[in-house]
Amino acid sequence: MNQETTNSIMEPHLESIPLEDREFYSPLGNFEWHLLQSDDDIGDYSIYLDDHVTRIRRTNLEAFFAERRERNQLREQKGLQAEKPAKGHWFCVYEVTGDSDDKPCTMCLKTDHFQGLCPYRHYVSKDAKIGPGGVLVCKCCREEGGHYGTDWIACVTDNICMICRNAGEHGTEECPKKRQSTDGGQ
Hints:
Layout: H1 19-25, E1 30-37, E2 53-57, H2 58-77, E3 85-94, E4 134-138, E5 154-158, H3 176-182
Parallel strand pairs: 2-3
Antiparallel strand pairs: 1-3, 4-5
């Protein structure tokens, strides 16, 4: 791999990407150079630094940077220094436009993706509206509902009913079968 594309925080010329990669990725999206911090959760977003370019949806890239901003704010609140960018990386950023006939994602209620590709799985603000298919959890420990205060990073996981095994329509507390059993089966 070209060391200029991985160890530089200065944006290299687009020509630093091998021609075959440029030709492959060009029709798929736009090339963008972004700086990375040493503590970025690149694995969660499928960012592979061994590759010259990482293809990523715009919504996931926005979630990536929103998570970083919140993490840096938490550091500052604790009196710690925010990480400085350590290197840069090329991304092929693409948009997905929703079709009004599409069913909305049951996690975020948007129509430009399905639940398996929801950016809320990686990061979401703690006050975001969550659909019935998801439940807000702490990204680090998966504690449902997160923690007291603001000293945690949120994401969404699948809302699975432990009574009827329904995924995405209701949780255990809202299960119609639970209501039937507490009403005496009526």
